[in-house]
Structures are given as C-alpha cells and as structure tokens.
Amino acid sequence: MEETRYLTFALGKGRLAKKTLELLEEIGITCEEMKDKDSRKLVFVNEERKLRFFLAKGPDVPTYVEYGAADIGVVGKDTILEENRRVYEVLDLGFGKCRMCVCGPEKSRELLQHHERIRVASKYPNIAKDYFYNKKHQTVDIIRLNGSVELGPMVGLSDVIVDIVETGSTLKENGLAILEEICPLSARMIVNQVSMQMQTDRIKRLINEIRGHVL
Ligand code: PRP
Asked: Model's pTM, two decimal places?
C-alpha cells in the first residue's frame, strides 16, 4: 500500500531519542541524516517509509503530539504524568526504567507518617500534588525547582523531594534515602488522538512491529 503522507515522530532529546532510534533500526527504520553530529538540521526524514523525526525538549513532546504537530511521540512516563496532555499512551518501550519517589533525610520519615504540613520540592509539581493531595490526603506546600532537586532538603529549602531515582547513587552520595515510592517509570510511545483514528492501520502496524522488539 502506498503511504501517502509523512508520519511525524517527536522524540525527547538525549538518551531516550538515542534508544528510540536504536529500537527503530532493529525493525529496519533508519535515519542516516540524524546521525550526523555536525548537522544543525532539526527535522529528519526517512523517504522510504515516509517518516519524519524531530528532537524536542522532553516536556514539549506531549504538547507537539496533542496538537498534532507530531503523530507519535516518545517520552518518559514522568513527563506524561506531569504534562497531562490529551494523547493516547500506546506502548511501554521498556527502556529508561526508573522510579518516581518521595526522598529525603531519614528524619523526615516521621513527618510523612504523621501527615504533617511539610514542604516538598520537585521538578514535578503536578505529580507531587496528585500524590500528596489525592492519594495520601496530606496537605503540603509544593515548591517547584528546575533541577538538582536533592539540594532542597540539604540546604533547608524543603523537608522532602519528589524526584526520579534510577540507580540511587545521587541520593546516597548526598545522605538522602527513598522514603516512599510513587510509581515506576519508563519510556512510552504516545499517539495523537486524531492520527490514531485517521491512520489506524499504519500506526497499529508500527506499534506491533516495535512491540515485537521491546525487551
Ligand atoms: C535525575 C534525577 C536525579 C538523578 C537520579 O537528574 O532528578 O537527580 O537523575 O539518578 P540516580 O538515581 O541514578 O542517581 P538529572 O541527571 O536528570 O538532572 P537534574 O537533577 O538536573 O534534573
């Protein structure tokens, strides 16, 4: 069947994009021009399969997909939960595995147990809010940070943090611990809702091909 229009992928810059391209290569989809490190191009095409790819900041990927600027996106579950966009999450890609956790010094464990009004620093204020308000029914003050969130309890900005834990070494090196686990995370494939209706067969075929190679 002739593919009439490009299917566009938005990939979260960095490790996720690299892993996604490796996965696509396994099913025979390559994009040579994307491998050129000196290139300043932002959009890349695979003419054979009529696919287009672009790299975006992780938190922007669900935005591109919701508005249909990309049909498909690959992004972490953390970003999907935080951004809460109207997109379909269709596949767990099995890489980028880590956990969203409440972390802090051991002495903060008690504050969590007694449901005290504590300060929570996070790059993920929506996830933190949902967890404390809707799941734990604990009123807290949420402070938004943009990175190096572990500093929060170390310098006295907050009692705990809500952050991603992968190996746990950042916590360990800074005298912090996991106090509660919120949810497991990994890279997910998301699809624009209209694209899914209009290009059902093509997108489903692609999902099935990729699914067969997910570990
Ligand atoms: C992430 C996360 C933790 C760290 C966890 O930070 O926010 O700080 O990785 O990894 P680990 O458990 O393997 O030590 P990132 O490197 O993305 O930078 P950031 O702190 O600026 O967000």
From this structure: 0.93
